[in-house]
Design a protein that fits this description.
Elements: H1 3-17, H2 24-40, H3 45-63, H4 70-86, E1 101-106, H5 113-126, E2 131-136, H6 143-154, E3 157-159, H7 167-180, E4 185-190, H8 198-211, E5 215-221, H9 226-239, E6 243-247, H10 256-265, E7 269-273, E8 281-283, H11 286-293, H12 299-309, H13 312-323, H14 330-341, H15 346-350, H16 358-363, H17 369-379, H18 383-387, H19 394-404, H20 408-428
Parallel strand pairs: 1-4, 1-5, 2-3, 2-4, 5-6, 6-7
Antiparallel strand pairs: 7-8
Length: about 450
């Protein structure tokens, strides 16, 4: 997400930040380059102009302050303005004190609305919000069946009425079913069109008036750039959108939609879809996203991912064993590696670390399949070998390689890296070091 934008913007700002002295002409020249980068990323012209006016006004003021490094201050100013452009602060869903909270999902056809409905249900279930789905897309073939499949995967209730064409009546009966099921949250998946038309908007307005939803979430395809912004604006003017979910942000989207959509509609981005799997929907934090764009990292999100994947008790147990005289064995390593895989693709995880260059990461040969190769190698060992890797001599290495379908060289590399990890973990546990709940990524 934002790889190209992040790389170009960071490079430009680093040049300015590295200078001990900045003149007003330096700032204006640098901001001209920033302007080009933002427009290339498909940020709207009006927002780009407003953004640069704010940055230039604050930056020139900083130049007058002696004893302050202007280059570093300029980076801070750009960061603050990016946060403001993205929505200033995180906007969570507004859950009602008296359930159910009704969420209306709207958007154009092909934006990933139905899949996103399933993802949102999974997240809300994990938050103990007892979600219930209503399939209100009566036009797209198999839309209800798709949502029913997602509901089954997430293990939540769903209301469908095959053949029904009266959407308002269908949803009203669905709300009765949700109340009977003691749902705390009801998510209504509505029909989309290839483009905004009067018939669709008329139906959505009638549905809104009939059920009075507490949240109206517009689902936008992040790959469509300014088309997504224009669509969001149209839906917002007609319905009063309360939030936006951006999908497909794991692809090669230029980022302009995410940077423009709040500024144009003032409807906050509440979630972003970062992959096709049901667990790949993340809350949107403007400050954290600005940090990622400027390659300052997103350690808070990384910690949250780790907490979702590893319980505090398991992490503490693993840390204690790592600091013991014996240290970790390969059985522990297998457990920690599986926990790390739950955090998502390695590139996404590494991209949250401060200072990681987005372009270099994109071109890096990071293959998540290699983790499966490592897993196969460890599983081809006997329990005794996992407990005591020193037992693994040349003959055993050949046997393990054959059993896992990998090469002896890969087995050797794994064992060597495992020993390095043990030493690193012990060093991390010493005074001044940092305890780690799991090891680094290993290459097979």
């Amino acid at each position: 997400m934002f790889d190209e934008l992040s790389t170009k913007l960071s490079e430009t700002l680093q040049k300015l930040a590295g200078r001990g002295v900045l003149t007003e002409d330096d700032v204006k020249e640098g901001l001209r380059e920033v302007r080009r980068i933002l427009l290339d990323a498909d940020v709207s012209f009006e927002l780009t102009r407003t953004f640069l006016e704010h940055v230039q006004e604050k930056a020139i003021g900083v130049l007058q302050i002696k004893g302050v490094r202007p280059g570093q201050q300029l980076v801070k100013i750009v960061y603050d303005e990016l946060v403001a452009m993205l929505g200033e602060k995180q906007a969570p869903l507004q859950h009602q004190s008296v359930p159910p909270t009704i969420i209306l999902m709207v958007g154009l056809q092909g934006s990933g609305k139905t899949t996103t409905t399933g993802k949102l249900a999974r997240r809300l279930k994990a938050e103990n919000k007892a979600p219930f789905l209503i399939a209100a897309d009566v036009y797209r073939p198999a839309a209800a069946e798709q949502l029913a499949t997602l509901a089954q995967q997430v293990e939540v209730g769903i209301h469908t009425e095959p053949g029904e064409t009266d959407v308002v009546a269908l949803v009203k009966r669905g709300l009765v079913a949700a109340t009977s099921a003691r749902a705390r949250t009801v998510i209504v998946d509505t029909a989309g069109r290839l483009q905004i038309d009067d018939a669709m908007m008329g139906e959505l307005k009638r549905l809104k008036d009939a059920i009075r939803p507490h949240e109206i979430l517009f689902v936008a395809d992040g790959m469509t750039g300014q088309d997504a912004v224009r669509s969001a604006q149209g839906f917002h003017e007609a319905l009063g959108v309360t939030g936006v979910i951006l999908t497909k942000m794991d692809g090669d989207a230029r980022g302009g939609a995410a940077l423009s959509i709040y500024g144009i509609t003032k409807a906050p981005i509440k979630y972003v879809g970062v992959g096709e799997k049901l667990d790949q929907l993340e809350p949107f934090y403007p400050d954290r996203m600005a940090g990622r764009i400027l390659q300052q990292g997103d350690v808070l999100s990384l910690v949250e991912k780790a907490q979702e994947s590893v319980s505090a008790a398991d992490a503490e147990k693993l840390a204690r064993k790592a600091m013991s005289k014996k240290g970790l064995d390969l059985e522990d390593f297998l457990v920690s590696m599986r926990q790390m895989q739950k955090m998502g693709p390695l590139k996404n995880v590494l991209g949250m670390l401060p200072g990681v260059n987005a372009a270099a990461l994109k071109n890096a040969n990071i293959d998540d399949k290699k983790l499966k190769h490592v897993e196969a190698i460890v599983l081809s060992m006997t329990p005794k070998e996992r407990k005591d890797p020193d037992l693994i001599d040349g003959k055993r290495r050949v046997r393990i390689a054959r059993g896992s379908g990998r090469t002896v060289q890969e087995v050797n590399t794994l064992l060597k890296q495992f020993e390095q990890m043990k030493k690193m973990m012990k060093m991390a546990g010493k005074p001044g070091g940092m305890k780690m709940p799991f090891g680094r990524g290993f290459s097979g």
